[in-house]
Amino acid sequence: MGTVEAHGPLPVGTDNVSAEYIARTLAPEFGADVLPLLPFGVNRSLAGHRGSLGLSPETFKAVIYDVGLSLARNGVREVVVINGHGGNTSHLKEALYRLHLDTGMRAASVDWWVLVPDLSKEVLGEVQGHAGAEEWAFVVAAYPEMYESVRRDTEYSAYHPRPGVSAYPAPRSILLYEEGNSNSYDFPKDRLLKYVNGVLEAVRRVLKEILGGWEEM
Asked: Which of 21, 76, 126, 164 gives 20 to 30 Å between its CA and that of 177?
């Protein structure tokens, strides 16, 4: 799951692209089925930007819970959610915990970007962030033809969120986690794909640990 949200020059569905790419790439390794993507999430700081569509936290949690109940009625005992949007995180955890308490279903969620705090610097040489090279890498991996759709010789205006500062909406839809008010997508395709492969390996390790532990319970 992800959301539909402004991402600078990247697609508004970028959060969906990363989550679905990870799920569909790794599912065969675990003998897992993949549900259709849930494309709408909880948007806050970027809700005021054109192209952002979302759900209220209450609706979002209800959808997660109801889909989980449907899975339980169909005999599914384990579910893993690959999440591509940080605005979903706390609400997703609440819904999955309630689902586990009410049905006994084993449920986990994975925020892929949190698993790889150092990978951006290792592979890309810098940390960018929302609508940055990290997410751009998944767009390129899933849709190689998109590599030519973003001008790599252009600096795009960005915003650097600071501790203690809140702004609704955020002044820009590109949010750089390190200092800077402009962003470039001038990265070779092979480095972008190397980043994606690094994320896949990190998620793979986590899933093996979770599913292996569940199997032994």
From this structure: 21
Assess whether pLDDT exceeds 90 at residue 179.
no
State the helix-helix crossing angle for 89-103 and 57-73, rounded to 10 degrees.
30
Quote the distance between the C-alpha of residue 200 and its chain's center: 12
pLDDT per residue over 40-54, tens digit each? 999 999 999 999 999
The residue to which tokens 């999440």 are assigned: 83
- The answer to whether the predicted template modeling score (pTM) of the entire model surpasses 0.85 is yes
* pLDDT at site 194: 98
Q: Is the pLDDT of residue 92 over 90?
A: yes
Distant-in-sequence, close-in-space partners of 1: CB < 8 Å, separation ≥ 6 = 16, 19, 37, 38, 39, 41, 81, 82, 83, 84, 85, 88, 92
In terms of DSSP bridges, do strands 175-176 and 156-157 run parallel, antiparallel, or are they unpaired?
Answer: unpaired
For residues 54-59, average pLDDT = 98
Token digits of residue 172: 């820009």
Angle at 195 between CA 2 and CA 175, to 5 degrees: 50
Asked if the bond preceding 188 is cis, omega within 30° of 0, the reply is no
Token pair 């586990």 is at which residue? 100
Distance from C-alpha of 139 to C-alpha of 196, rounded to nearest angstrom: 10
